[in-house]
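User: Structure tokens for this complex, please. No commentary.
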Amino acid sequence: MANLKEIRTRITSVQSTMQITSAMKMVSAAKLKRAQDAIVQMRPYAEKLQEILANVSGSLDSSEGVYSQEREVKNVLYVAITSNRGLCGGFNNNVIKAIRLDIEKSTANVSVLSLGKKANDAYAKTKMYTKEGFGDRPFEIWDDLTFNNVSEVANTIMKQYREGKWDKVVVVYNKFKNAAVQEVITEPFLPVVSESNEENNSSLEYIFEPNKAFIVQEMIPKSLKVQLYKALLDSRASEHGARMTAMHKATDNASDLVKDLKIHYNKARQAAITGEILEIVGGAEALNG
Amino acid sequence: MKVEILTPEKSVFDGEARLVSLPGSDGSLGILNNHAPLITTLKEGIVKIEGADGKVQEFGVKGGTVEVLNNRVIVLAE
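Assistant:
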């Protein structure tokens, strides 16, 4: 059995680790709250946009736009949305795994754009890695996540799609379900698949200015930007949720470990005391005898 | 009529107004009470809201979409 001092040192070190993990848990909980608020704030916008788009495109054959033509798929771009920091359980690996499984199935040329340092690290040394047109460090978007910054990335993707660099764009990210549950989503981004919902043919007679086709054309890029922004917000909330859960588990494990070590420590202490008493008694016996 | 201006990040304005003037992509337009249902797109410009009390508020937009329905004006600005 380890001696008393060794056990004491281990207890102290585990306890300080526990302090760090529980502090990280608190920080993530606070950040999660803010990330969730951001999603709640943007929801009415996204819903309204969808509603108007459905209203306008209901009677329109929308398969003619630049973004809705289905081409033969030769070059696919995967947008991998991960976090910049680790210590959040399987959060980042799940995204990378989902992409790998998807790639194995397809025969097309695959490129990966990494929004997030963790995906960046995973793909930087492979030939799929791309960041052309997205600046030097595309993952820095996390330092300042605003709609304008996301729009720029979305615009670049749309431009490259128009130019024929990609025939299909897919976004892979963690969708936020609740603080403990995230779901990896592989979402088609381009071409735009129009949802034909016949029931939404409202009898309301809207005036369209200038005309339906123009409005649809204007709105599709907008809704794509919103879609990407939403994916990023979702991923951010998931990240903090995942980290919170991971740190909670780590704290629990550490406190179990401390409990175990304390039992060991007390056993060792008692053994030492018993040993000392035996020595004293033995010595006294020897004097008497 | 009720006017809402939404951006992807937050709701910027929500309240009663007497007149809204918008930079429509086919030219500027003003919306008063009981306007017919309308959907239009915006170009870069200034959205001006004259409140029920006559107070005027201005918001710069880069573009957006507007829906007018049942005395509710919803501006999805960018």
